[in-house]
Amino acid sequence: MCGIVGYVGHRSALDVVLGGLQRLEYRGYDSAGVALVADGSDGMFLASAKRAGKLANLIGALDEQPLPVAHTGIGHTRWATHGAPNDRNAHPHISGRVAVVHNGIIENFATLRAELETAGHELLSETDTEVVAHLLADELQTTPELPDAVRAVCRRLKGAFTLVIADADHPDMVVGARRNSPLVVGRGDGENFLGSDVAAFIEFTREAIELGQDQVVVITPDQIDVTDFDGNAVEVTEYHVNWDASAAEKGGYELFMLKEIAEQPQAVADTLLGRYNAAGELQLDEMRLSDDELRNIDKIVIIACGTSFYAGMVAKYAIEHWTRVPCEVELSSEFRYRDPILDRSTLVVSISQSGETMDTLMAVRYAREQRARVLSICNTNGSTIPRESDAVIYTHAGPEIAVASTKGFLAQVVACYLLGLYLAQVKGLKYGDEISQIMAELAAVPAAIQRVLDDADVVRKLAGELVNEQSFLFLGRHVGYPVALEGALKLKELAYLHAEGFAGGELKHGPIAVVDDGTPVFAIVPPRSRDRLQDKLVSNIQEVRARGARTIVLVEDGDDEVLPYADHVIRLPKVPTLLQPLVATVPLQIFACELASQLGHDVDQPRNLAKSVTVE
Ligand code: AGP
């Protein structure tokens, strides 16, 4: 959602800002704009352009009507909340000498707007952002220094916001502010950057600064000052980004999603890397909870959204099995509204690839208010959710750009498994050799995923055969159930088709009624080592086939029992039951990606979706 870039330095600000916006495109948006502080015959002035639609529309407009050369600028890709995605509502919004871009929702904007209109301000857009521009222009009448005026305005705002502001009277300065919405600073040499995330400036610097809650940052070419909303200087955390610009590029692949699917063996291997200490025990580096604290945990609640929620559903089976600690999995957006029972011995585990998902962030805050301990599993260094948690396990999947999560999901499952094994270790519930055995099985997973990738032609061909279908069903049991849900979600997101996942056992309780002649049904068959589960799912396949379904069966090598009932077979490498999601999800990702491509959809940025959902 909304990408933001700010720049001051010696380069062409327009080039830096447009380049940054391009790298942030993955977040999802529906209009784009820039503002530069340029030198005119009558002094410095704000030059701006904005357009509805893709960044290409803005770039086209700039080609026709170029902006003057400037070294200070801000830019924005907007994901509409207040007002339609048109030119007028696109950011920046300008009032007097300031241009403002914004991510988030100003909750008291209606009151503030009424106040401004009564005072004679004419607002041109329907956005909450324009209100901020006008408030700021007013404040500058009495508080001429931009940083002071920004702090004063921020104190009046309610809700979630990242603001980035350029001022014609301060040509070498860009000011940013954040509350409940992401903003990071990039430290350069004679230049500095602001961005919604480090991708905005990764081409120029890998040195970044985390901004805390309710902080204002002022960047000039040579200085970065951070204060709270009252102007008190605050300590900041600096960090080095451990990936470079090439990681955020397609690297020869046609789509980010294809690249990220192909990176899954590496993502799993990297997430497993360095998890042993010299004594051969499992260690989780970033874990800030002591073993004593973990020994006291008697309940685990996993909170997450979307694909991350399904990773949590998979994890529950392993965590309960290995630790014997009850584990609930709940959608972040539901969690805090149901009065959950939490106390000091509850471990709340949040899972978020981006670390910025507002529903999950709010659930994390709620859990901490209730005195639960919060551990976050996250893929994004320096993002808000891990910063606000008691402990963190980072997945090392590298930047995930495509809106549909792929490698993020697999890495999350692996991180959850590490957590489960670690808890079993500190609670003395598993011997060292048992843990090593499971770690060895996990270590073999990257090769198994690679096998699935190498055999993917059959999946792509199948997508071609099913390209005209309107409705798909996915069915699984045990850890195959969340895989079925994830397969259906991928297809919804990318192909905009009806797709539903359900537990095999539920079939006869309703879903079987929708099975008709030719309905494609994907079935994830559990490994044969789980005899009863496997048998039961084979029965489910027979049941849908008897009603005319076209069955697509994902089944491990050597299991031929189901072949008589399979219209199509996708072979999976043999892995233990709990690890099967790590291989079974991959063909479903490839299927959705291929089908959506054949339908001509924008796979990396599907309609209506954003990568980072920073509003509730
Ligand atoms: C996944 O394909 C989706 N785009 C979406 O469900 C995503 O997993 C969800 O929004 C949670 O995001 P997070 O992991 O960044 O919190």
Plain-language structure description:
- The structure is a single chain.
- 35% of the residues lie in helices and 24% in strands.
- It has 19 helices and 24 strands.
- The strands form four sheets. The protein has an eight-stranded antiparallel β-sheet with strand order 3-2-4-1-10-9-11-14, covered by helices on one side. Strands 5-6-7-8-12-13 form a six-stranded antiparallel β-sheet. The chain has a five-stranded parallel β-sheet with strand order 16-15-17-18-19, with helices on both faces.
- The model has no long low-confidence stretch (mean pLDDT 94).
- The structure holds 2-deoxy-2-amino glucitol-6-phosphate (AGP).
- 2-deoxy-2-amino glucitol-6-phosphate binds next to helix 9.
- 2-deoxy-2-amino glucitol-6-phosphate is lined by residues 305-308, 352-354, 357, 360, 403-405, 493, 613.
Calculate the mean pLDDT score and round it.
Answer: 94
Number of strands: 24
Distance between the termini: 12 Å
Portion of residues within helices: 25-40%
Largest sheet: 8 strands, antiparallel
Q: List the ligand species.
A: 2-deoxy-2-amino glucitol-6-phosphate
Tell me the Rg in angstroms: 26 Å
- What structural category do the secondary elements indicate? alpha/beta
Question: What spatial order of strands do you see in the largest sheet?
Answer: 3-2-4-1-10-9-11-14
Which of globular, elongated, flat, extended, rod-shaped describes the shape? Answer: globular
**Portion in strands:** 15-25%
Q: Total helix count? A: 19
Residue stretches low in confidence (pLDDT < 50, at least 5 long) are none
